[in-house]
Write a structure and sequence with these properties.
The protein is of the alpha+beta class. The protein has 15 helices and 16 strands. Strands 2-3-1-9-8-10 form a six-stranded antiparallel sheet, covered by helices on one side. Strands 4-5-6-7-11-12 form a six-stranded antiparallel sheet, with helices on one face. The longest helix has 19 residues.
Amino acid sequence: MCGIAGLAQRSDNQELTAAFTRAAEKHLFRRGPDGFSYRDYQAGCVRLLHARLSIIDLEHGWQPLEIPGASIVFNGEIYNYQDLRRAGENYATQSDTEVLLRGLQAEGVDFLRRCDGMFGVAVLDNAARTLTLARDSFGIKQLYYYADKDRFAFASTIAPLMVLSKKEINQAALAEYYLTRACRAPNTVFSDIHELKAGEALVFDLDTFAIKSISRWAPVRTASRTITDEAEAIALLDRVINQAIDSHLVADVPVATLLSGGVDYSLITALAAKRNPDINAFSLGFRDTRFDESGYAAALCQKAGIKHHVLMSDAAEFLDVIEQWPLVMDDPVADPSAVMLYKIAQFARDKGFKVVLSGEGADELFGGYNQYGRFNRALQYKNIGRFLGLLPLFVKTAFPAKTRHVHYLKQLTTDPHYYGTGMIVEPYLLGDLCRGVNGTAFPKVA
């Protein structure tokens, strides 16, 4: 996890450039503690900045990286970069960064369709006088930007962009946060700071000094077929999981795993241990035995014969993180488990590991949350709606505060659609919570 940033100005304002650089160095350090560097282009009107976490080509992979006509700052990793090296090209490094830059310079953003990886990237084309930003198709690596008539800036985190922002709260984003626990791109909590969507590319024209285009480079992925044979499905899943672990273990530094007591993290750790018997696993344990899964994790590590590190904690030990949490998370995300992930990542870093594998995303792919079960029940029992059609109206009238429960009841008695349970508050409370934001009334929520 590196950090990138950049600032473009119609005319060079050295005071602003210095302030932006100081903010970037300060707030990107958490993402890239191994070194901070920057370079100026276009007669000093463009500055690209990079905070490095050294993973690939430790000696030569420094950024901004340049080739004739173009420069790049890049956060992330291209797992298949060795396969993407262009025949006949003279590469100066062994890094995935150079492979990415040369591919983008030769093929444009279409090159990203051949990249297997996660990334937030910015490329300066000196001849075309354009600055192109792009984000991976899943949105794993975030990328934020700010634009006005005289300045354009981007960063891996929101904090450096606050040097330019008016810091006015975005009411639409605030509503999204209260209802879904997060702001959704392109919205951020600030009205004049935007987030590039997953799979999008933005082109900024340095001549007109305006955003030329924002378009989706990533193809829309849909299920091409339905697999009804269980053995075939298991074999396919086994193949792609193993391929993913193989590619994610590629690094010039030691790789460890995060390990909970769940199926997802345990499976990844077990498969990684087959490839590297010396791999280390890191777990978070709780002194309150009602929440502690470290025993399951320890049993797996004993069976696999790998070294197991456990950080025992309780609720009070997380309080020291709360004050710094807005700067850690950038956009507000009300996910309590993220605090635990942050603590265990710090623990692994203190033990000398920069890279860990995790089971993030498994619950979304394999139905691990309770709301999937509720949705399935709604599909099964929706036909009772013709008999109980007045029941939702009765419950809504009798229990107006229980809007989530009313919503679920409607799912059971009408044509259901999927919904999550991420809302922090009931929708009817939004008006009171957000009243007076930016001096205006909050829009009515139906």
